[in-house]
Structures
1.
Amino acid sequence: MHSIRFRFFAFIAALLLVLLLLLNTYPLVSSRDAVYEEKRSSLAAAASVLASSLAGLDRLSQESVAEVLTFLDISGYSRILVADRGGTVVYDDHGAVGGRTQIADVLTALDESKTVFRSRLEEDAFRSSYAAPMSAQGAITGAVYLCEHDSERAQIIYGIQERIRVLSVVIGVAALIVTGVFVFGMMRRLQDLVRSMRVVAAGDYAYRHAVKGRDEISELGQEFNQLTERLETTEKQRRRFVSDASHELKTPLASIRLLSDSIVQSRNMDADTVREFAADIGHEAQRLQRTTEDLLDLSRMDDGMVLVTEPTDVSRVAEDALVLLRPLAKERDVELRARLEEGCVILGNPDALFKIIFNLTENAIKYNVPGGSVELLVRVADSSVEIEVADTGIGIPEEDRLNIFDRFYRVDKARSRATGGNGLGLSIVHDAVQAHAGSITVGPNKPQGSKFVVSLPRATKEETGL
Ligand SMILES: Nc1ncnc2c1ncn2[C@@H]1O[C@H](COP(=O)(O)OP(=O)(O)OP(=O)(O)O)[C@@H](O)[C@H]1O
Ligand SMILES: [Mg+2]
């Protein structure tokens, strides 16, 4: 955490340093170079004018050169020196004449017949010098030497430099402060988020992170809150499931204890009563067995276990279920009709499909009225196979329709108990349908009762291997 903050800050600071260094050097270097160029051309021009004017003289002397200079009106130079072919100084406005010149550039100009230019920016001024040979009819006749001392330009450049420096410091400090505020603000928000995560990780699923603003960090916070919400829901479901499950197991166990205690405690119970009680105990045990089997089924599907699938004819599976359900329908005085189409083949798990059809049809019979009817349809619809179970029974109130697929949910607890249900059938149906990538809907049946429709993706020709 600290290291990201530090790295980010260091990166920005380094970037800033490079930028400011560039700002402090580049403009100065280039403007200084421009001044050098300008000096070279102005000195070259003046030297060439002077050289060509002096070439016209018969004899070079202090006086004749001075005369030409006044005539040319060459001024603004800190030193003007003219030497003859042999290097003897014939004119110098800043020194003695007659002696051999010691200035190396003048000697180079004479000996090698070339110009020598120098320019330097010193503390207070640009110091430039220019030495050029003079010639007449192709022969070197001497050399001129000009020096210039320009403090005005130097002051301007130094002034600009000073201003850039001040500006750099201001920009640098401001940028660092802004970056600092930004980075620290961002880090604080991330740290807040981490703190929220710790609170939730410690088990407080009702906690919500306070989301501020509308940027990426806020988005992160929102995502985190959604995750927490899902976690909270799952946790609630888990708790309710455990308490429901233990309740469901507790009731038949209590009955068994009560019945067995009665048998043990009453000494002179007649054999018939004992048998009756034992039968009841068997009944409750059967009920326990069913509940635990259903729970195992559900937990197996919960684990996301991949169903072993094979091309399965849903109509055949429905026939098997009907064989088991007909006695129940007869017992309840419910008419059970079925229309099972041919070619309803899907890639599915026969056991899971059996559970879907069995549970839906069993419910339709159980929650029916004497003299009522149940209609089971298996048909092909476009790219899916549909299972429709419609009954003329007691129906499901609209407000309960959302919940009937929840574990242990029963619309009418008392009635369901009497019919032996524990509210797991539709959960198993729901999970099995999902495992087949299908969908299930429930609605009212006309004029009364309920209608469940399951839609399962039909197997393609290649999948069925036909
Ligand atoms: N066809 C139906 N008509 C009316 N009510 C229904 C119908 N099917 C389901 N229900 C209601 O939905 C509840 C949940 O059904 P589900 O099959 O999950 O549980 P169950 O039948 O009570 O018990 P189980 O199927 O586990 O033995 C039932 O208790 C019942 O109240
Ligand atoms: Mg049921």
2.
Amino acid sequence: MTFDIEQELEQINQYTRKAVTQDDVYLFTLTLCDNEVDREFERFTPEALKQLAELFKGKTGLFDHSCKSEQQSARVFSTWVETDSARTTTQGEPYTSLKARAYMIRTKENEALIAEIEGGIKKEVSVGCAMGSLCCSVCGADRRTAGCDHSKGHTYNGQLCHDVLSDARDAYEWSFVAVPAQRAAGVTKAFLKEEPMNPEILETVKAADTGLSLSKPQLRQLQTEIAQLEQAGADAAAYRAKLLSDIGRSVVLAMPQIDKSLFLEGCKAMTAQALERLCESLKAQTKSMQRRPQLFTKTEQTPTDNHAFCI
Ligand SMILES: [Zn+2]
């Protein structure tokens, strides 16, 4: 795919208050979503990707870099759907993805961020969208109303059951998620679906005292919700375990005088986000020590209990 800078500047200037030139902006290409079954056992139809292509034009993207508190933004100015006929999805469809071109206004502050995008470090994108239809891939039943006996993630006659997402209604913002170089399953895209859960069911469950009566579709919806929560919980646990193991490895190198198991015990109460930050800073520390090994071996450090838990 080649891009014509003049044409792109014209597209960008539809979104800017004053006209920008090539030197003012940093342009990059990203994949917003595709037609592969994802970790939440959901899949967009190629038709839905086309609809999303229109909806994502002009949408803002955020960078939530764990080392910085401020968020920096980019904007999608053109989108297209690309089919790679040489690549087949697990469902036997040609791999189709929604691609976008985005721009950032170059500033002193986002130089480092641009370098990261350039270096391919920031790759995972999370998108928010509202889908009008959510159907069972096995029998086609509408998940929101009718429900069926098939559960996402289970296999029926060799067919992986998942939700087919179509009828895109709206697209919200997109964001780059902070992903460690070696990632475990856990960081996934978040779909803001319309009415993910019938509030009536929740109220019924909350108000239940001695017993509970649910209709079959309500029961299915509740079961789907529980399955999703379980999946999200398992993903989160796997991701935390991965972070803790990375931290354990780094702490031995960065702070050899610290009791590793005691340190990890203290880490267990931390949120995943805090663990990510700790992991990154320990890795940075290890790297800087590796660069000056003579300094490291000569320095005698006195361990202090509190110091180990400072992030
Ligand atoms: Zn079904």
